[in-house]
Write a structure and sequence with these properties.
With 499 residues, the chain is mainly alpha-helical. The protein has two domains: 4-144; 165-496, Neurolysin, domain 3 (Orthogonal Bundle), CATH 1.10.1370. Helix content is 64%, strand content 3%. The chain has 20 helices and three strands. Strands 1-3-2 form a three-stranded mixed beta sheet. α1 (4-31) crosses α3 (59-69), α5 packs antiparallel against α6 (123-144) and α14 (351-370) packs antiparallel against α15. It is globular, with a radius of gyration of 23 Å.
Length: 499
């Protein structure tokens, strides 16, 4: 006899499978879909998104959820599974299916327009598509609603549940206040490390082989995942045993591929690390994008930009590019890796300036959503904010407002999660290092297994059993803080710059 739990479990599994297929379509769209197939892909994704929406608002599911939540005998883990699906269903029930489908189709069209506009440095051609996406996001925000009545909170909550603009703004302001004087001191008083040895071409094949080697070295299973290429690196999960990461290779910019790969590896390790007992359930997910970003930023910045990491990996890089880096020492490479610059591109930014790029986007996307900034005026506003936050003005829109895929993707509310992730990553690594002071000896020896296993136990295997800040608090003893990151950056960068 089928029980209420059996019926819910079947539906939960089906939802997870459907989300995996939607993710796979999105991955294919950014990697292998031919340009002429974009429109059809948008329709296909729209159809599947509508089916997923229909599934979530099904009255039978709603009744089943209510019955299970009222069952006092339901065990604690199953109860959390039901609560996670209840949240999805509750939010879905507020958004009309027609809007879900229109959003999916508009997003696909906007992505194609963004790629063409970026390649041709033609923001004017992209602006109408951005306006359409932002208009649909306003509709979505209004439909979702929020306790504060702020439309931005409604969208932010989709990526960082429980976070609000009222709480986030002071956090980012404190972070900016700590970073601006540090950037000023480093760039105006310090001695910048030499990076002239990077001013050469590094073969596509050499970069690819090295990044695949690093992926495996850090613990990413290539039997349960793969790496491909895309205009903007990302991670997509089809299932717990099929995690796709992408990288970007630029022959005259060696660090783009290396740190794109390490960044996405962090995401991929998280996706491969959920508890197998939670497979196909609502618990096999990160509780927030901020926590997800903490994993990518921890591996990319704290580990990948460390001196022990390059003592370990520079020999392999020399093998990949014979004769090009033979005279470079690990210390010199470490300095170049950590060169602080007031640069144009967020994904290529150093640790110190990176969050200033996020603060800029946070301001602009709130203005776009509120209507204070029209999509057609974004380029000018972007350049003004770049000058205000970083003291530089992009030479063109490809290096300015067209550099990121997120708004074309319809991801307003996502950018702040990068800074939240940076903050969480500093807290997590400090907690691990306090437990294992031999961390950096491990890294230099290429032993990443201990750190990965700690992250598995403290973060990955928990999945969505707890909220994001609770996960961090359980691992570190404290919730979201700004101080650990600023102090870690000062401790690392002042000596590099001779200060």
């Amino acid at each position: 006899m089928t029980t209420q739990w059996d019926d819910f479990e079947r539906r939960m599994y089906e939802l997870k499978d459907l989300e995996g297929v939607i993710g796979l379509l999105g991955w294919d769209e950014e990697t292998y879909t031919p340009s002429a197939g974009r429109a059809a892909r948008g329709r296909q994704t729209g159809t599947l998104e509508a089916i997923r929406h229909r599934w979530l608002v099904d009255p039978a599911l709603q009744d089943g959820i209510a019955g299970l939540l009222a069952d006092e005998t339901l065990d604690a883990t199953k109860r959390v599974m039901v609560q996670r699906v209840e949240r999805q269903a509750r939010l879905a029930s507020r958004v009309p299916e027609s809007l879900v489908k229109r959003m999916a189709e508009a997003r696909s069209t906007a992505l194609a327009a963004w790629q063409a506009a970026k390649a041709e440095d033609d923001f004017v051609s992209f602006a109408p598509h951005l306006a359409t996406v932002v208009g649909l996001l306003r509709e979505r925000a209004d439909a979702l609603g929020s306790d504060s009545g702020d439309p931005y909170d409604a969208l932010l909550d989709e990526y960082e549940p429980g976070m609000t603009e009222a709480r986030l703004t002071p956090v980012l302001e404190e972070l900016v206040a700590g970073l601006v004087p540090l950037v000023q001191r480093l760039t105006e008083e310090g001695r910048a490390p030499d990076a002239s040895f990077l001013e050469q071409s590094f073969s596509d094949a050499g970069q690819w082989d090295f990044t695949v080697r690093v992926l495996a070295d850090l613990g990413f299973s290539l039997e349960r995942g793969r790496q491909d290429r895309s205009a903007h690196p990302f991670t997509a999960t089809a299932s717990e045993d099929d995690v796709r990461v992408t990288t970007k290779i630029v022959e005259k910019q060696l660090f783009v591929s290396i740190f794109s790969t390490i960044h996405e590896c962090g995401h991929g390790l998280y996706e491969q690390g959920f508890d197998p007992a939670h497979a196909r359930t609502s618990l096999a997910a990160a509780p927030s994008m901020g926590l997800h970003e903490s994993q990518s930023r921890l591996w990319e910045n704290q580990i990948g930009r460390s001196l022990p990491f390059w003592r370990r990996n520079l020999p392999g890089l020399r093998e990949a590019f014979p004769g090009q880096l033979d005279d470079v020492t690990p210390e010199q490479f470490f300095g170049a890796v950590n060169r602080v610059e007031r640069s144009f591109i967020r994904t290529e930014a150093d640790e110190v300036t990176y969050n200033l790029h996020i603060a800029l986007r946070y301001e602009l996307e709130r203005a776009l959503l509120s209507g204070a900034l029209a999509a057609k005026d974004l380029a000018g506003a972007w350049n003004e904010k770049m000058q205000a936050y970083l003291g530089v003005t992009p030479p063109d829109d490809a290096h300015g407002c067209l550099q990121d895929i997120h708004w074309a993707w319809g991801a307003i509310g996502y950018f702040p999660t990068y800074s939240i992730g940076n903050l969480y990553s500093a807290q997590l690594l400090a907690a691990y290092e306090a437990e294992r002071p031999e961390l950096w000896s491990d890294v230099e020896a290429g032993d990443f297994a201990r750190l990965l296993e700690w992250l598995r136990a403290k973060v990955h295997r928990l999945g969505h059993l707890y909220d994001a800040e609770d996960v961090v608090r359980r691992a570190t003893g404290e919730g979201l803080l700004v101080r650990p990151l600023v102090e870690a950056l000062e401790k690392k960068y002042l000596p590099i710059y001779g200060l």
